[in-house]
Amino acid sequence: MAQAQNATPSRPISPHLQIWRWHVTMLASILHRVTGAALSVGVLGIVIWLAALAGGPEVFAPVDQVLHSLLGRIVLYALVAALGFHLFAGLRHLVLDAGVGFERGMANLSAWICLAGLVIVPAGLWAVLHAMAG
Amino acid sequence: MATRNQRIASARAPGVRGGAGAWTFIGQRASALALLVLGPWFALAAPLAARGGYESVRAFFAQPVNALTCVVLVLAACLHMYLGVTEIIEDYLDKPAGRNAALTLNAVVCLLAAAIGVVALAINLRT
User: Fold this and answer.
1) Cα(B97)–Cα(B86) distance, rounded to whole angstroms?
2) Which of residues 100-129 of A touch B (CB under 8 A)?
3) What CA–CA distance (Å, rounded) separates A93 from A104?
4) pLDDT digits (tens, 9 = 90+) for A28-57
5) Which residues have C-beta within 8 Å of that of residue A16, sequence separation ≥ 6?
6) What is the pLDDT of residues A109-123, one digit of tens each?
7) Which of A72, A106, B10, B32 has its CA 20 to 30 A from that of A80?
8) Whole-number Å distance between alpha carbons of A77 and A112
9) Whole-model pTM?
10) Closest CB from B54, B84, B116 relative to A61
11) Hey, which residues 31-50 in chain A have their CB within 8 Å of chain B?
12) CB contact under 8 A, B109 and A50
């Protein structure tokens, strides 16, 4: 490791982002990482919410208020969309781990299905929550 | 020319992660399978419980089944994000100082988050 770093600093690196034509499997890969990072922040949010719950009604109320604000609602929507994508893409990765679905047509199709998760999951959750409000 | 057994041995030898790679792989996938169920559970249950404000959320997580399910969710999510963020740090930070600081910070934040989540649910169960 140390030797490699002391070696010629101008070694060519493998071609990446800027020379590739955009394609959907690449977008799915990048989005899986981006949504994963976003959901990590979401997990911290859940922990704060649970801590506020344990703190009692006086602590819970302001946190609840932030969640019900316009910004809070936008962030929650984005997190549910991120969950939708990451869930579908995670499932896709589990299938790919088994060595299945690598053919170009199948890999592209499954990537598109994951992208659909960005819309289907928030819309579906919204519909279910509305139906249960009944 | 290495024999087949030598090649297998070298593939199994501890690498930069000191042989932890298999557990990283298994942990990421085991937590993923748990979150496949628990993520949607929380996305549905939390907004429903939150409709009634504090008292209804408290009552929901005061039920042992829900509290326990949420404990598993918190633990699985914290393990999953620890492994995921570690991978991101290892990919993008290569100067040892910043990289090690980020890896340590990530481990501390994930451990704290898991501990706070579990303790908060335990406190809520007793009130």
Assistant:
1) 15
2) 125, 128-129
3) 15
4) 999 999 999 999 999 999 999 999 999 999
5) none
6) 999 999 999 999 999
7) A106
8) 20
9) 0.87
10) B54
11) 33, 36-37, 39-40, 43-44, 46-47, 49-50
12) no
